[in-house]
Amino acid sequence: MAKVTFPLELTALARFFHEAGTVLYAVGGQIRNPLLGYPVQDRDVCSSMTPEKLMELCEKHALRYVPQGVEYGTVLLCPGNDTYEHTTFRKDVYAQGGAHKPERVEFGTSVSQDAFRRDFTVNALYASVRTGEVLDPTRRGLEDLRRGIIAATTPEPDEIMQDDALRVLRMVRFACELGFTVEKKTFASAKKHAKGLKDISAERIRDELTKILLSDVRYGAKGNAGKAPGEDSPVYKGLVMLDKLGALDVILPELCLGRYQVQRLTYHAYTVLYHNLHTAACMEINGMDAQTALACRLAALLHDVGKPEAKRRNEQADVEPPDYASPHTAEEEAALSAEVAGKTSGTGHMYGHDRISADMAREILTRLKYPAAVVDEACALIAHHMFDLTGLAKESTLRERFALWGYAHSLRVTALREADVYGSGRTEKTAPVETAVRFKRVLMEMKQQHAPFSESELNCTGEDIMAWLELAPSKRVGEIKRALLLHCARKPADNTKEKLRRICLDMRDAQ
Questions:
Q1: What is the reported pLDDT for 441?
Q2: Cα torsion at 392, 393, 396, 400 (round to 10°)?
Q3: CA geometry: angle 126, 127, 128, nearest 5 deg
Q4: Which of 119, 210, 317, 354 is the most exposed, having the fewest neighbouring CB atoms within 10 Å of its CB?
Q5: For the chain, what percentages of helix, strand and coil (3-state, to nearest 5) are there?
């Protein structure tokens, strides 16, 4: 018989339940993850105790609690440093439409009744907190866990999917995070009910999409993090699954406009949509904090979302291709070559797609209620992803641009460049990307030379500039600071107070 162990603070809490004649059970990830060898990140518990009785118990033993969703049987328990979400055994009754929130709940007294209102068998595993003994009410959870399968708790998956369309995204997310496959009937039901996602709140869709995009790092070294980015990545598999289910059309319809937008096969193995999906999976995020990693993955996913719209605008305007010394991107080279040959193969011009994509991404991410900082960084990366694709920019130009962007953002643009190239399907993921290699070299040299990456790193202040030039506070002071930053990006040794003063005076005398 499978058993799991629990923190002392939780077992102490279970004793109070036992003394009150009730068994406290841990459920879901607290059972599933230890059995898989993964760390516990979700702390859900349940029992037959009603919220009112539970709050009385907490007050009797001076336990901290937070009544949250009491009408649905939920109370947060805070016995120590962790918080546990306690839900009374219940049966959920949903209205039509799959809008996630039950219309009403009926409290129950049995684990079995509670198990079959949950979504998937591997999430319907329970264990007595006192004994650690694992219960499998669906009689499939442990076997599905062993075989690596996501399956609905009910024999007819429609009963699960039609009630709450968010389960479509949860199904994909668990498959990605755990590296599991989805049982055929469950997948077919999810596809049937994916349109119900239109009734789900933007916040809940955002949270599940985020977890899918970061599924390769969810469990660190224990999970999928060791897998190389690309087609083997759980991120790519999850995004493809969303597309096959029809869920992508509901949650990211703008992205799906690129589904049939072909690109020159000499340089691109995929349509615009699948190039975006591959690029997201190829975006390296190891070592980044969670917010930055999310912004980078979102940027990679949406970096070319504006290509179909750019093509439409270019066709309407009859845009002449730029006179490139060499092509800027593989797809632009294909478009130029095709125009000369008189056959566009459906690709057309996509000039300006970086700015269009950034604008569209801002609308999409704002709609999904992503934090402003994530939106700003993702959109900045998208807007900058076409910079110096030919590798023809002078090193002084690179230095100036990197100083304006900042060191960290410049590295993220470099990572997006690599993901973009690898996501084309025409370059091996072990091959160096020449422009990215050059970016990294210049950035490393700037760091070694102590070049400033912001005006705050200049060895002078606005007050210094005003004193040197006898200026009052004005817009001109800011313009001078920017000019000094660009100068020192090229010549880091000039970032001393005396040399900056001399440069300021020379600028004044040159006017």
A1: 98
A2: -160
A3: 130
A4: 317
A5: 55, 10, 35
